[in-house]
Amino acid sequence: MCGIIGYIGNKNSMPIIIEGLKKLEYRGYDSTGIAILDKDKLFIAKCKSRISDLEGLLKKRNILGAVGLGHTRWATHGKPSKVNAHPHTDRFKRIIVVHNGIIENFNNLKKDLEKDGCKFASETDTEVVAHLISKFYKGNLEDAVRKALRKIKGSYALGIISRDDPDKIVAVRHDSPLAIGLGKQENFIVSDVSAILNHTKKVIYLHDDQIAVVTKDAVQISDLKGNTVPKKVDTISYDIEEVQKGGFAHFMLKEIYEQPQVLSRIISHYVTAEGAIRFESFNIESSFLKKIENLVIIACGTAYHASLIGKYIIESFVRIPVGVDFGSEFRYRNPVMREKTLVIAISQSGETADTLAAVREAKKNKVKVLSICNVLGSSLTRESDATIYTHAGPEISVASTKAYTAQIMVLYLLGLYLAELKKTLSKNHINKAIDVLKSIPSKQEEILGNSRNIKEIAKKHLHFGAFLYLGRNINFPTALEGALKLKEISYIPTEGYAAGEMKHGPIALIDEYRAVVCIANDSFIFNKMASNIQEILARQGKIIAIATSGNKQIKDYVKEVIFIPRVDEQFSPLITIIPLQLLAYYIASLKGYDVDKPRNLAKSVTVE
Ligand code: F6R
Q1: Which of 447, 466, 488 is the last residue of a domain?
Q2: Is 518 one of the catalytic residues?
Q3: DSSP characters for 15-79?
Q4: Which residues in 9-36 are b (16+ Cβ under 10 Å) and which e?
Q5: 173: helix, coil or strand?
Q6: Do residue 333 and residue 219 come from a single domain?
Q7: What is the dihedral sign for C-alpha 78, 81, 87, 90?
Q8: Ligand 1 touching residue 161 (CB < 6 A)
Q9: Which pLDDT belongs to residue 441?
Q10: Gap from CA of 404 to ligand 1 centroid (Å)
Q11: Which residue from 176, 309, 349, 404 has its CB within 8 A of the most atoms of ligand 1, so it is best to mutate?
Q12: How far apart (Å, rounded) are the C-alpha atoms in residues 371 and 384?
């Protein structure tokens, strides 16, 4: 989604902002722009294309100025175009605004402002913010921002500068992330801290409805009424190398290969040397957890698929009902929640608007919320009663891979933890399960070491116009996730289905032009999948099977088989997904697509 970077200091801000914008590129955008302030001299450049094009435009000009704002836009109101790109200004070009989010009442505000004589240059909701601040401006920028915010409804992270008040950046957030980076005689505002890592690791995460006044030497934070708010400085825990490709062609491939390391890290974080599972800063009383009668897991996209796997895991380990819901459905559904319900919210970014709204719905019903999240200090972690971090490191590729397996690993550990509390599994059983989990990273390494075979299969199938993914039992969600990975980066129409449902509809699609990926790992219901395979073959569907190494039967009827190491079916989703991620990656990259930045998609969906 949209990205914000702002700089104020002693240096020339333009190259710093361009460099920051490049770091924000991965989040998905369709246009970009920059504003540089040199005392009261303002320079603005925008373009409806890549940041490198904007950089090209700027190289021809000698633009100097120690204050600046940059923005990557992902269109919501108004098509992607140069005029709609941010920054936006008021009619006097004295207030300059960049914005992430949506101003919901922009239409009414616009009508009122037009009555006051404002002329709008763009179709965006953002432009009203610039005009509104200008209307209230009486010599102090933050006061004008406060007054404007009283009128605005919606979600926003805003960076604001003014030609009349040029020694500060004003930053404010409501339901959209924004942080302040602290340097020496220079400070930053940023919507994603990875964009300023080579300048500073010290950051202040702004909370909702806090206003920061950022100068080159100081940061002051206050609430909407103007009361000073204490500052909490956090240190970013990862390094710049983690947000670089490190020799891989794409971040997605790098992140696929990081999975064994991530899973080992999670185990060593949460499993003690004695084999006990411990979650740090777990603010939910174990006496409450012992009593819970049902779980509801809420998430979106890939995290929703991890949640579905969580349902199989926790129902089997803990024997309580687990419901799984999309954030976007849960929030409007008037769901049933009881005193002994625990809501679990899963999100890589911790900023997904629908997941956050669902969490707020749960909190309104006084239900406890546990989040599983990758991003320290994100909105979700702040709004939950407790958080288990996935420790996957920054995920840059829009298509989520390592965050997914990290979420599943945490769900296994959480399931075992709850099973111990509720005494639904013996200690011996739990120990054996932990041993299996410890063996997973090396099994993933084995598949990654044989990726050439998967690339060959990708080459043979990239011309197919449609794919169907089938799985059963705990690997039904794996089929959904494999299908999502392929469709989002290769744009091939792809569906995931529970194999048992094939006869109830999707079989109508099968012919020689349909590639069907069958997750046929060893299972107590392998024979059921074997029957599905026969039915597909009878209709000339082209099958790619994922099967357990040592399965001799499958080669008799399927030509293209990806063998995976043997693992107990209950833990297999951490293994079966690896070849599907690689298959999607190779198909999309062989087709020549920009794998890390698929069209129309954004890394974190901070608007509804
Ligand atoms: C798919 C993908 C998205 C996200 C979804 C939720 O590869 O990345 O489907 O999983 O937008 O995002 P988070 O996990 O940040 O809440």
Answers
A1: 447
A2: no
A3: HHHHHHHHHHGGG--SEEEEEEEETTEEEEEEESS-HHHHHHHHHTS----SEEEEEEE--SSS-
A4: beebbbebbbbbbbbbbbbbbbbbbbbb
A5: strand
A6: no
A7: negative
A8: no
A9: 96
A10: 9
A11: 349
A12: 6
> Within this chain, do residues 76 and 205 fall inside the same structural domain, yes or no?
yes
Q: What is the DSSP letter of 607?
A: -
Co-location of 401 and 481 in the same domain: no
Residues 386-411 pLDDT 10s? 999 999 999 999 999 999 999 999 99
pLDDT value of residue 365: 92
- Residue ending a domain, among 236, 262, 286, is 236
Question: Strands across the sheet with 466-471, in order?
Answer: 494-498, 466-471, 514-520, 542-548, 560-564
In the prediction, which pLDDT does 281 show?
67
Cβ contacts of residue 310 below 8 Å, gap of 6+?
297, 322, 324, 344, 346, 407, 408, 411, 414, 415
Same domain assignment for residues 230 and 253: no
The model scores a pTM over 0.70: yes
Instruction: Tell me if 347 is assigned to some domain.
Output: yes
Task: Give the pair of three-digit tokens for residue 233.
Answer: 């400085």
Give residue 238's pLDDT: 79
CATH number at residue 87: 3.60.20.10
CATH number for the domain that contains residue 342: 3.40.50.10490
The DSSP code sequence of 312-353 is HHHHHHH-S-EEEEEHHHHTTS-----TTEEEEEEESSS--H
Q: Evaluate: CB of 302 within 6 angstroms of ligand 1.
A: yes
The whole-number pLDDT of residue 586 equals 97
Ligand 1, atom 5, lies closest to the CA of: 301
Q: How much is the pLDDT for 134?
A: 96
- Residue 542 belongs to domain spanning: 451-590
Which stretches of the chain drop beneath a pLDDT of 50? none
Give 299 Cα–ligand 1 centroid separation in angstroms. Answer: 9
Find all residues with CB under 8 Å of 432, minimum gap 6, and list them.
Answer: none
Report the domain count for the chain: 3
In short, whether 176's Cβ falls inside 6 Å of ligand 1 is: no
Which ligand 1 atom is nearest residue 403's CA?
A: 14
Taking Cα atoms as reference points, which of 192, 196, 168, 160 lies closest to residue 178?
A: 192
- Cα(301) to ligand 1 centroid in Å equals 5
Which pLDDT tens digit goes with each residue over 2-52?
899 999 999 999 999 999 999 888 777 889 999 999 988 999 999 998 898
- 3-state secondary structure at position 144: helix
